[in-house]
Design a protein that fits this description.
Elements (H helix, E strand, L loop, with lengths): L1 E14 L2 E12 L3 H16 L8 H10 L5 E4 L9 E7 L7 H14 L3 H11 L8 E9 L8 H17 L6 E12 L2 H18 L3 E2 L9 E3 L4 H7 L2 E5 L15 E10 L3 H11 L7
Parallel strand pairs: 5-6
Antiparallel strand pairs: 1-2, 2-3, 3-4, 4-5, 6-8, 6-10, 7-8, 9-10
Helix pairs in contact: 1-2, 5-8, 7-8
């Protein structure tokens, strides 16, 4: 059954002066294993990009779908249709012996190991297996490319609410921190310079999530998902990492480089993240 419905105005633009609006109704639904499995597995493959083959995505999908009390999908053709987005949280302490999730956990730890403080913070929470108030929740989700960011505030709000309700039923969703997995992209320096000289004003308007460290001379970093900026503001640690199976860039390379991003936030900050997402990406009211 749909959890709630929300009207969206999805903008489809061929250029900056020609914009048309298409009204789409999104259904926020509980996980439905018999219809959601293939689509969620495909979205996990999209999230993990060139390293997707390192993981048993089917087993991770099964684990996500087994949690019918926390998490949601977004659909446009009713609860029996394929999901276009999903959001879930997995308890890395409780599921420490789950082979597929343990593999993903160890992969992330290996990437995070380049940042000693970040790595120590994660290990401290994971080692607190006997402390019911100190578990680590992996927030994992992805959506198809043309889904607007306005769908994410209600998704995160539902996740926050359902975690609260699950705790009232004494279910293992008491977390001290959340680890959030996402992606970034970078254009080549030449492409950045070309775009900057031809259309710098439009680029500034479109890309609200650029990250340019002070003194940096390399390509700018852009978030795949604009809402990641809200998460990063609350993060105590954040790291961008290269995929293990990514082809090295050469002088002949064209297009963008895609990389991973992992962020750690205290659980107490999730409410602030949800509030800021709702302010930055408000849900359009139905007519």
């Amino acid at each position: 059954m749909p959890k709630r419905k929300s009207q969206k105005n999805d903008e489809d633009s061929s250029d900056d002066s020609d914009v048309s609006n298409v009204d789409v109704e999104f259904d926020f639904c509980d996980f439905k294993p018999e219809t959601d499995y293939i689509a969620i597995k495909r979205l996990l493959q999209q999230l993990l990009y060139t390293d997707a083959n390192l993981f048993d995505l089917g087993a991770i999908t099964d684990l996500i779908l087994s949690q019918d009390d926390v998490g949601c999908t977004i659909k446009t053709d009713g609860p029996e249709s394929d999901p276009l987005s999903f959001l879930a949280v997995l308890n890395l302490n409780i599921h420490h012996s789950h082979p597929a999730l343990a593999n993903l956990r160890d992969y992330l730890l290996s990437k995070i190991s380049v940042d000693k403080r970040f790595h120590e913070a994660i290990k401290a929470v994971l080692d607190a297996s006997n402390d019911a108030s100190g578990h680590l929740g992996l927030i994992i989700g992805e959506r198809v490319y043309n889904m607007p960011p306005q769908v994410m505030p209600p998704s995160y709000q539902m996740l926050q609410d359902e975690i609260k309700w699950a705790l009232e039923d004494n279910k293992p969703y008491r977390f001290s921190h959340y680890l959030i997995l996402s992606r970034i992209w970078r254009a080549s320096a030449e492409e950045e310079a070309e775009e900057g000289s031809s259309n710098s004003a439009a680029r500034s308007k479109r890309r609200k999530t650029e990250s340019v460290p002070e003194g940096a001379t390399g390509p700018k970093t852009h978030s795949f998902h604009p809402e990641d900026e809200c998460i990063q503001k609350a993060a105590i640690h954040s790291l961008d990492f290269e995929y293990s199976h990514q082809e090295p860039r050469t002088k002949e390379s064209v297009g963008t480089d895609i990389a991973g991003r992992v962020m750690l936030i205290p659980s107490s900050k999730l409410g602030e993240v949800v509030t800021e997402m709702a302010e930055r990406f408000p849900t359009p009211l139905p007519p």
